[in-house]
From TrEMBL:
Annotated signal sequence range: 1-24
Protein name, entry field: Substrate-binding domain-containing protein
Gene3D superfamilies, per database record: von Willebrand factor, type A domain (3.40.50.410)
Highest taxon listed in the record's lineage: Bacteria
Keywords: Signal
InterPro entries assigned: VWF_A, vWFA_dom_sf
Length: 514
């Protein structure tokens, strides 16, 4: 009997060992490389592995969202991105890999309470927009922290959001919509950047007394508010002119891992997985039937369309990284103060400069306005130079001084267009050392004094230093369109006809990136 019991025990032990071996053999692995924003899902991995039988490992890396599809490390089974939209664009018509969005988080703006109150006051109580933020940044009233869009999905989503709002078309950005002149004011407010939101948030905490706002995912801003690291919690602003949402797709890299991938996706997209994701990460569940955290109850707002052309995103990133655009321009305004400008025309010119100084409260006006750091040299001319003064936009006081200079009631009966332009062209060439320089000529009549156009062009062409200075001509009234167009094109600029649009719109059109 004793021998029988020992034999039975051995059989039981062998059977148990076989069961353990069988269970271990059935477990599979899924090795995931993830964007830095996905660090917060780590606490869920043990639970996910227990429920699915898939051993999940997570390798978090910065800049993953911006890699080309071929650049993803194929030694991993899957990639978990903040957004796969940019990579999908790069693939064009090629076979796109299997990718499943798992949760949502709008990219919004966390604003310190005092700055938020100032924004609301300036907006007259209306819902805040990207245009309001750009307006405040341009004036120097809002100092922004924003992650580098070339390094991560949240920074890119913010850039696309503000650029789409600035275009004002209500649809996805097109190549012709990407003009950095609309974003210079917003960029002027950048006071802190970083490769990832995590490093940016750490630096924001250290410098929170110097900064007013932090751009990032709703979830990350809410977690920062709860961290106890801030002296005062940030107020989350959901721009009414639209936002881009991060959707965190899990992308299959190796078809051999499809079984494990499907099991993980099944758990993540199930009711329990969606509940645990929103509880752990404070992101919105992709499944609308799953209850949200109370802090996520407000509507995210209008979702903007992601660009459908890779060239659009590449142009945005190129403009953002262009060092010339981090340096404010020096513009030489050459303004006609001949007798024909008296009355309604000079009133329109003064209203134009007032609008560009912040009086134009339209969305377009807020994006195109003069911005902090810009330098202007204003030349008033008739038959000779009537006045000249340089202004640097540091605050509203400088803009008021600019308006006062243009308010001068000093006119001349003759019009020396090309002599005045020659004067400004020489000065602009001498100033073109530390920042981009351009000349803007506005005239409403024919040149009847001083040098002719041919002489101006000959003098311009003979001086290599002057060839770096473009002239943008604004035709008004009876000015010679053909001559202005010729002068502008010969210097690398272009002409805008203010008779076809308003004078304000003409000035907005030439506020480009010189």
């Amino acid at each position: 009997m004793r021998a029988f019991r020992m034999a039975l025990a051995a059989v039981v032990l062998l059977a148990g060992a076989g069961a353990c071996t069988s269970e271990a053999a059935q477990r599979v692995q899924l090795r995931i490389v993830a964007s830095s924003e996905l660090e917060g899902v780590r606490p869920l991995l043990a639970e996910l592995s227990r429920d699915t039988g898939v051993d999940v490992t997570l390798d978090v890396r910065a800049g993953l969202d911006m890699l080309p599809p071929a650049g993803l490390d194929k030694s991993f089974d899957a990639a978990w991105l903040t957004t796969g939209a940019y990579q999908q664009l790069q693939l064009r018509g090629a076979d796109r890999p299997l990718a499943t969005p798992t949760m949502l988080s709008p990219v919004v703006i966390g604003v310190r309470p005092k700055a938020a109150a100032a924004l609301r006051s300036a907006a007259g109580g209306a819902a805040l927009t990207w245009a309001d933020v750009a307006d405040a940044a341009a004036s120097g009233a809002l100092r922004l922290a924003m992650a580098d869009p070339s390094q991560g999905g949240s920074g890119l989503a913010a850039l696309i959001g503000v650029a789409t709002a600035a275009a004002g078309t209500g649809s996805a950005l097109r190549p012709e919509d990407v003009t950095c002149d609309r974003l210079r004011g917003f960029f002027a407010g950048r006071s802190l950047t970083g490769p990832t939101f995590a490093t940016l948030a750490d630096d924001f905490v250290k410098r929170q007394d110097e900064l007013d706002a932090l751009v990032g995912e709703e979830s990350a801003l809410l977690k920062l508010n709860d961290s106890g690291q801030l002296k005062e919690k940030l107020e989350l602003v959901y721009p009414a002119d639209g936002i881009i949402q991060a959707d965190y797709p899990l992308q299959l890299l190796r078809p051999e891992a499809r079984v494990a991938y499907d099991k993980v996706i099944g758990w993540l997209m199930g009711a329990q997985g969606q509940k645990r994701l929103t509880e752990t990460t404070l992101r919105r569940p992709f499944d609308p039937r799953v209850a949200r955290d109370l802090r996520l109850q407000r509507l995210a707002g209008t979702t903007l369309f992601y660009p459908d052309q890779v060239e659009v995103v590449d142009k945005l990133l190129s403009d953002y990284a262009d060092p010339r655009l981090s340096m404010p321009d020096h513009v030489f305004f050459v303004l006609d103060f001949s007798g024909s400008m008296r009355g309604e025309r000079i009133a329109a010119l003064r209203a134009t400069f007032a609008g560009l100084s912040g009086a134009d409260r339209s969305a377009s006006g807020k994006f195109f306005r003069f911005y902090r750091g810009e330098r202007f040299t204003v030349v008033r001319f008739g038959g000779t130079v009537l006045g000249e003064q340089t202004f640097t936009v540091e605050n509203q006081g400088a803009l008021d001084q600019l308006g006062g200079f243009i308010a001068a009631d000093e006119f001349d009966d003759s019009t020396a267009v090309w002599s005045a332009l020659d004067h400004a062209d020489i000065a602009a060439a001498a100033a073109a050392t530390d920042r981009p320089v351009a000349v803007v000529l506005m005239t409403d009549g024919l040149s009847n004094a001083g040098m002719g156009l041919d002489e101006f062009l000959a003098r311009h062409d003979a001086d290599p230093a002057r060839k770096v200075v473009p002239t943008y001509a604004i035709r008004y009234g009876e000015a010679d369109a053909a001559e202005l167009d010729r002068a502008a094109k010969a210097t690398g600029g272009r002409m805008v006809d203010a008779n076809a649009v308003s004078l304000l719109d003409a000035f907005k059109e030439i506020r480009g990136c010189h």
